[in-house]
Amino acid sequence: MRIGKKAQVTLFVIVAIVIVSGILIFFYLDRGPIVVDSISGTPDSFIESCSRDTVQESIEKVYRNGGEIETSFGVRYQGELYNYLCYNGDNYLRCYNLHPLLEKQIEERIRVDTLDSVEDCFEFLKGDFENKGFSVEMGETVYALDLIPGSVDITLSKDLLITRGSSVQTYSNFDSRIVSPLYELVKISKTIVTSESRFCAFERNGYMIFYPDYDIKLINYDNNKIYRVIDRLSGIEFKFAVRSCAVPAGI
Question: Where exactly are the structural domains of the chain?
Answer without folding.
Answer: 36-58+107-178, 64-102+181-243
